[in-house]
Amino acid sequence: MKYRTAMSTLAVLIICCLLIPISVMGQKVIFEENFNGLKLGPSQEEGVKKDNVWTKEGPKGWTIETEFKPKKGAAKLPDGLGITEWMGWSFADHAWWTQTAGNQGRANWKKAEKTVAIADPDEWDDEKKDDKSPDDLVSINSWLSTSPIDISAISPKSIKLSFDSSFRMEKPQQFEISAKFDSSAPIQIFHIIPDETKDSIAKVTYKITGKKEDKATSEANVDFPFTVEIPNPGGAKKMILTWAVLNADNDWWWAIDNIKVTGVGGANVAVDAKGKLATSWSSIKSSR
């Protein structure tokens, strides 16, 4: 009797495993972007003049929003002040960006592959008019957003975002990532601020898990891959991710590449009439 019961249980477990698709048992890729499919055009104002190295046109459906926040008592930012290529997020050939910016550690980002997304307030500020640089007058905020990502078949609270990035930290700039689901308000999922005492140290907060860590940045240490958990709600159809550089002056850079979004699929699992995972052969048959 015990033998027959054990064999029956084993048979049910085997059948359930066969009915559950691989996507349910582990993460599957639902979105990827490495920017290498972008058509790059000529440089604009940068010192190293080249063709096929820069563009403001991101992947289809992606958007860039940039604002210049006036500093207290400062005059209005004159039209055109600031290096054109770096007025907010842009896309550029990594090797050219490194060369025209004078390196300063940008070449030490070894995971970068050809075209990358870059917010570089350090280079943006390398221009003067009437003895004023852009950061004498304004700080810069810039947001880079994906096209809507289909998450309709993904299980709730199962999404993970991974990407390669490069940055050096300095006051007062901050970085953040937010996620927007359908028509709901964006939620912050990731935040980086400079350490109050030593601002080359980046204080990283993973908002969903509460995990915190410090990253020491320097010319030699600029390579920082991240994996971030995202609390996608049940029933959500679309998700938009946004990378933001906020309150930046002449403050180095943040660049990203090799973006991957994964999630656990939730379809085609054998369930009983009450929506629970089937645990007997008869309930499995009745669910089909």
Structure write-up:
The chain has two domains: 2-20 and 269-287, no CATH class; 25-263, Galactose-binding domain-like (Jelly Rolls, Sandwich). The strands form two sheets. Strands 3, 6, 7, 9, 10, 11, 12 and 14 form an eight-stranded antiparallel β-sheet that branches. The model is unreliable at 12-24 and 267-288 (pLDDT under 50). Strand 10 (187-194) and strand 11 form a beta hairpin. Helix content is 15%, strand content 34%. By secondary structure, the chain is of the alpha+beta class. The protein contains six helices and 15 strands.
Give structural attributes.
288 residues, alpha+beta, Jelly Rolls, 2 domains, 8-stranded antiparallel beta sheet, 7-stranded antiparallel beta sheet, 15 strands, globular, disordered C terminus
Question: TL;DR?
Answer:
By secondary structure, this protein is of the alpha+beta class.
Task: Give the secondary structure arrangement, pairings included.
Blueprint: H1 2-19, H2 22-25, E1 28-33, E2 54-55, E3 63-70, E4 90-93, H3 94-100, E5 115-119, H4 121-124, H5 134-137, E6 138-145, E7 149-150, E8 159-167, E9 174-181, E10 187-194, E11 201-206, E12 212-216, E13 226-230, E14 238-248, E15 254-263, H6 281-287
Antiparallel strand pairs: 1-15, 2-4, 3-6, 4-5, 5-15, 6-14, 7-14, 8-13, 8-15, 9-10, 9-14, 10-11, 11-12
